[in-house]
Amino acid sequence: MASVELGPLRERAYLVWNDPARAVLIDPGDEAERLLAWVAEAGVGLEAVLLTHAHFDHVGAVAAVVAAHPVPVYLHPLALPVYQRAAASAARWGFSVAQPPEKPLVWLQEGRLEVGPGFEVLHLPGHCPGHVAFYQPDAAAVFSGDVVFAGGVGRWDIPSADKLLLEASIRKLFELPGETAVHPGHGPSTTLAAERRSNPYVRQWLASS
Fold it and tell me: What is the 3-state secondary structure (H, E, C) of the chain?
């Protein structure tokens, strides 16, 4: 697994593989040229792009990636309207990203994903419709997107967000083993156990369940 921080919002993309011929790229958010050079330097074969959700800072380099690597892009169907508005949403916040293509999209659903290193897909809405996480049981790791961060959780005060859904998603995520490493969409990695102990939102929402 390798990660890189991209763009003015410091979104974190991940390159994950067991077999170096079947790597997946999670959330290619920005800085397309730098991102493609980073993938090339890793020396892996790219099998798919996986999106935890469709906010513009997580999809801004999708167009460039699929132009250079003709691989499918996996997205939850409920995230499609946000995906279709990515460039327009970025512009409203004063940023510029290339609109990601709608082909070749493949719909994600909960359950085992057959591409890449063997993820289980968890549907965790609230921060964004159709938000998912990618859980890797053998590696005791989860790629959580913007559901939870070290010391925080995803925003719920933005369009299409829902605090009650986010709270339910946090409770669902924390059913995983405490030693599970959390690789979030922004900031450093952590563990579920560490966030259960010290994250004020997690502590409050788990206590109220």
Answer: CEEEEECCCCEEEEEECCCCCCEEEECCCCCHHHHHHHHHHHCCCEEEEECCCCCHHHHCCHHHHHHHCCCCEEECHHHHHHHHCHHHHHHHCCCCCCCCCCCCEEECCCEECCCCCCCEEEECCCCCCCCEEEEEHHHCEEEEECCEECCEECCCCCCCCCHHHHHHHHHHHCCCCCCCEEEECECCCEEHHHHHHHCHHHHHHHHCC
pTM: 0.97
Question: How many percent of the chain have pLDDT more than 70?
Answer: 100
Domain CATH code at residue 116: 3.60.15.10
pLDDT for 176 beyond 90? yes
At 105, the pLDDT band (50, 70, 90 cuts) reads very high
Report the domain count for the chain: 1
Residues spanned by the domain of 195: 2-207
Joined together, the tokens standing for residue 24 give: 């997946």
- Res. 60: pLDDT tops 90: yes
**pLDDT of 209 strictly over 80:** no
CB 114 within 8 A of CB 106: no
